[in-house]
Amino acid sequence: MKLGFTLAEEAFRHECAAWLEEQLSGPFRAIRGVTGLVACVEQRLEWERALGRARWSVIGWPARYGGRDASLAEQVIFAEEYARAGAPGRMGHLGVELAGPTILQFGTDAQRERFLPKIAAGEEFWCQGYSEPNAGSDLASVRTRARLEHGPDGDEWVIDGQKTWTSLAQFAQWIFVVCRSEEGSRGPAGLSYLLVPMQQKGVTIRPIRQITGEEEFNEIFFDGARTRAGYCVGRPGDGWKVAMGTLAFERGVSTLAQQMRFRNEFDQLVAAARANGTARDPLIRQRIAEAWIGLRIMRYSALRMLSGGREGALPPEALTYKIYWASWRRRLGELAMDVLGPAGEIARAEPYEFDDLPRMFLASRSDTIYAGTNEIQRNIIAERALGLPREPRGDR
Amino acid sequence: MDFTFTEEQTMSAQALGELLGDVCTGADLRALADGTLAGGAGRWQRLAAIGLPGALGPESAGGMGLTEADFVLLAEETGRAALPEPLVAHAGVAVPMLAELAAAGVSGGVPEALERAVSGAACVVVAHPLEDYIAGVDTAELALAGAGVGQVALCRRDELRLLPQASLDPLQPLVRITLPAGRESLLPGAPQVAEGLWRRARMRTMVFAAAQMLGLAARMVGIAVSYAGERRQFGRPIGANQAIKHHLATVQVKLEFARPVVYAAAAMLADAFQAGGPAAALPPLVEARVLQAKLAAADAADLAARTAIQVHGAIGYSWELDLQFYAKRAWALAALNGNRNQMQRRIQELLFGGGIETGPDRLFTN
To answer: Is A125 on the interface with B (CB under 8 A)?
Structure first.
């Protein structure tokens, strides 16, 4: 065990910090500290391209695809500095954290060459086609169909169906879609993981408004949408394994960057409590201290989890991580509203736009729902970590 | 001791519930929030037609002469429907305050305002001097306000400087108001009476907020229960899973244990107000009961909101589900007039040297 950083790592930290400071006090100062999910989109897309040009977009990836082959410690350092600098939320995070690592691990060389450099460069953005109206927690019951059609210009997948709760689809060029490619198959068998271009006739997007007033997620309708036969990740019919691999990435290194964002939210909350005097309230102080303790626990747990895991395969303790951070942040949101009082209920702008902390309170209600609800997480912990009997299921 | 309501009390609550079931549906709330329907489709007139604005008004002024104990179930129904109009602030707080002012011999437009308020011709809200924000001003014609708790003024809405803003509850926006400068108190020589009036207004606001939160909690449990029975995952309704059932059962426990606290607080408040006028001190135990009622109901409503969203999954945090209107109202009411911490702190003060006697022989004497 070694908890500190080496001199070389500290030098790397200075390098990251210097670049971030230069950019965020210079050309990108307008988006410093922006946390809104769909705020300042154009500038944040430009920011993604700047990260790509300077090779800061995907530092853990191999250099040939636009990364730096950075070690885990370096990735931790970059995530810390990124948050400390108040750099904006990553518009490209679904490509950088989910699509990219999945293609890197499960894709073919041709797929890697085609997709990874564009993700790294901030030239192509991604979204995730998992949930359907009738397949939420029960993801394996997806009904979106894909069939392979033979044509003169090569074989193509033709996709019909509907996906929902698709974040940032309105800005994406590509979507990774879990679909049923074997007719009559049920459950996890017979699914394929396809990479599908968004800008085509067969794809329609309808935005869905959230309780925060923001329109970040969407419904996607596939009506004879097409993609090349070669854009299936893993073998056709093996999509479930790939889909689960993506979820593991969602719970991997990206959690470190997320913790730094939590740290910023925590700091904002403490500043608000000092400013309005609630920091003197013993009950509030106690809850702030609990939040701080939770933040440290998450940090240590993530580092332990990431050091113990093999490439793409997280150790069993990782199963407990999602429920912990989601519940922690939801409590942080509640604490923020208690700190702010009725002033926190006042919108910053019409028609329904809120400051960071109240918006975080509303948005945090989704943390214990997306990427596996708390109830699903508890089942996973009970069944996979503890080996308890599986929950009985009905007929699909 | 009798913890039941009379047939008349339950019948009138039921009638209000049915009326609101017709004129205050989720679709009505959505239309209002999306700005496609102005004026609430005559809801206020419908409520006035059954005499509700004057529920707590004296019979001599055309009111129904009801007490806080009678009104608590009606307030609960308005909560269940997330009624956008400030009926509770008007009928439950402003009208009795106007009646108390009139009884104290105050003129200055008070008897006229009382009469118009009782009939529902004018909507009146109460802007407590110690509150930074108030809800419901947008539909009110008059407001009882004061530069401090030592004075009471009756202002037309156009005299107040209002800072209207969108707020968390999209159907009852909070407003910060500023009183016109140099406004005379209606009770120039009697600041103690003014203080007493504000204290009573605050107590009524809190106990009726608690009642509304009971209604909201019950409504949200109902919405979540019906969704859990319909939504199928893994080949069966999600409500068949213990994880879901237990969540909802936990809310139900909290709600049922909050209910008697709220009802008892309303009954005690009614008795205390009848026993003494505005200048009389409020027994500490009565105040503690009211605080406890607000606290217990807010806890139940908050848990109901959080649980109902969780049970719905992703659709639970989408704008398209009516659930958000009930959840946001519950959160707004919970924060109004002091949150959980402030309730607890005041109860502590009342317990430790604030006049509540403790000890085995005192525990259940009231």
So the answer is: no
Token output for B19:
């009326």
Judge whether residue B117 has pLDDT over 60: yes
Q: How far apart are CA A102 and CA A125, in angstroms?
A: 15
Query: Contact B355/B347 with Cβ under 8 angstroms?
Result: no
Two tokens, residue B213 = 């939160």
Residue type, A123: E
pLDDT, residue B161, reads 84
A165 touches B at CB < 8 Å: yes
As a CATH number, domain A126-237 is 2.40.110.10
pLDDT score of B220 = 98
Residue B341 or B2, more confident: B341
The structural domains of chain B, ordered by start, are: 194-351 (1.20.140.10)
- DSSP β-bridge partners for residue A310: A313
Q: Count contacts between A and B (CB, < 8 Å).
A: 121
Distance between CA A107 and CA B350 in Å, rounded?
A: 68
Share of chain A above pLDDT 70, in %: 97
Mention every residue, 6+ apart, whose C-beta is less than 8 A from residue A99.
A115, A119, A126, A128, A174, A176, A195, A246
- Backbone φ and ψ for A204, nearest 5 degrees, come out as -125, 140
**Looking at residue B326, what is its pLDDT?**
98
A99-156 pLDDT, tens digit each: 999 999 999 999 999 999 999 999 999 999 999 999 999 999 999 999 999 988 899 9
For residue B174, the chain A residues in CB contact (below 8 A) are: 342, 345-346
For residues A378 and A323, the answer to whether their CB atoms sit within 8 Å is yes
Residue appearing with tokens 């970059």: A78
pLDDT at position A326? 95
Nearest to A95 by CA among A46, A64, A50, A57: A57
Dihedral of the alpha carbons of B166, B308, A142, A125, in degrees to the nearest 10 = 30
Nearest chain A residue to B312, by CA: A369
pLDDT above 80 for B359: no
CATH T-level assignment (fold) for domain A7-91:
Butyryl-Coa Dehydrogenase, subunit A; domain 1 (1.10.540)
* pLDDT interval class at B168 (50, 70, 90): very high
Closest Cβ opposite residue A393 in set B131, B234, B244: B234
For B201, the token pair is: 């207004």
Say which residues have a Cβ less than 8 Å from residue B211's Cβ, sequence separation at least 6: B72, B73, B75, B76, B79, B262, B266, B297
Q: Is the pLDDT of residue B162 over 90?
A: no
**pLDDT given for residue B244 in this prediction:** 97
Task: For residue A250, indicate whether it is catalytic.
Answer: yes
Closest CA of chain A from B215, distance in Å: 21
Q: State the average pLDDT over residues B246-273.
A: 97
pLDDT at B363 over 80: no
The structural domains of chain A, with segments of one domain joined by +, span: 7-91, 126-237, 251-385
A341 touches chain B (CB under 8 A): yes
Q: Are A393 and B318 inside 8 Å of each other by CB?
A: no
Set of chain B residues whose Cβ sits within 8 Å of the Cβ of A351: 166
Tell me the CATH number for domain A251-385. Answer: 1.20.140.10
Span B300-324, pLDDT tens digits: 999 999 999 999 999 999 998 999 9
Question: CB contact, 8 Å: A141 with chain B?
Answer: yes
Other C-beta atoms closer than 10 Å to the C-beta of A3 total 6
Distances (CA, A) of B236 to A381, B224, B231, B245: 22, 16, 8, 13
Residues 6+ apart with CB under 8 A from B339: A338, A341, B298
In this prediction, residue A309 has a pLDDT band, given cuts at 50, 70 and 90, of low
Tell me: pLDDT of B362 over 80. Answer: no
